[in-house]
User: What shape does this take?
Amino acid sequence: MTRTEVAQRWRAYLLGLGLPAAVLAPLLSGASDSFPLSTYPMFARSRGELALYSMVAVGRDGREERLAPALLGTKEVLQAKVLIQRSVDGGPETMAQLCADVAGRVAAESRAARALAIVQRRYDPIAYFVRSPAPLVEQRIFECTLPAPPGAGEAR
Amino acid sequence: MNLLARFDAWLLAPVPRERLALLRIGIGGYAWIYLLARGRDVLAPAHYPASAFAPLGIVRLLDAPLPPAALYALYGLCVLFGALFVLGAAYRWSAPVFALLLLWVLSYRHSWGMIFHTDNLLVLHTVLLAASPAAEVLAWPRPASTTPALTGGWVVRALCLVTCAAYLVAGLAKLELSGVSWAGGDALREQIAYDALRKIELGSVHSPLGPWLLPHAWLFAPLSSFSLAAELLAPLALLGGRWAAIWCSCAWLFHLGVLATMAIVFPYPLSGAAFLAFFPIERWFARATRRRSD
Assistant: This one.
């Protein structure tokens, strides 16, 4: 066997078995989920109640309208959830920061909104679809007022 | 022949060099199109607040988010090297650079508190192909044909092993976290309800099929059993031939089911690119080109 063939054989074993072994490794090592080596925890356990923070636009009549992820600065729903969750975990300062970031986009889209709010709701997910969509618990945990739209208060 | 020698023969058995080249074009082409199609999402972290930065994998090298310009530059380079990868141009160095850039760019995208499990296999497959002689034919500029017709088959076996290992881990995770009762269907039913409700609450698109199925609780035991079996029995695909075809079809159907009930897209397996290594694709290619020239 030539030196090149030996080197090729080593590479084949190292990568050809090493990478599949690395994919299996989180099972044995108990490592947390990562990328690209994952523990693939999605769908793996019962989820129980859903406690969710969402961001809503509050209209001048008091009605709430949920904000689409794009207004939070992402196209992805799960990323939007994480952005809101992290701002809540960070306390009033980070919630105020998120509010300020989103306010400009909302104000540009809607003149009907008066404020933004972060709302916590707790649900039984199956009951939501099978019996009633009412949340088990609902509370506003943060609110910020939107800047007045340009021209507001001038045309009288 | 003892077991070790048989394994050695299986792992190292050469394959036609066209197969590796077609895997390069198929998987690399998918990665390149995916990068372009998801460009907005890949670049979105440029506008995320630094407080949301949660580096993982290779991105743990960073203490703070990249400046937006650096993210744009890395993405641009990744697209450029992706094109070279697909073409097979300067492959010996362009392919490892592309694999590293793809790993970085996608790891960075996942470093904001939410890991999307749709990209793992794509990155692992690209890393393996980058270490292989996958541009000896069907490349531009046309390479000098000094190499033999057969080449390192270990890459093909490694692609299949990595694919099977990923599905096996997903199946074993279910057994570890929920036990065999996962096959009973309650966990899947809750997951579908949870996912749909979360999307409704966050103002995103959800699948109408999932919620429509929820009142029919009996349906979820067979669906769960099928999903779990598709994951745990993935190693059977390594037997090749019909076994591989059956398993790939089941895995594909599993992803189709996830799409239909939860509107979660696993584009890499759904496109079929994730399963190419299980098949003699050079024969399909030869047949297709012959038919075209007739």
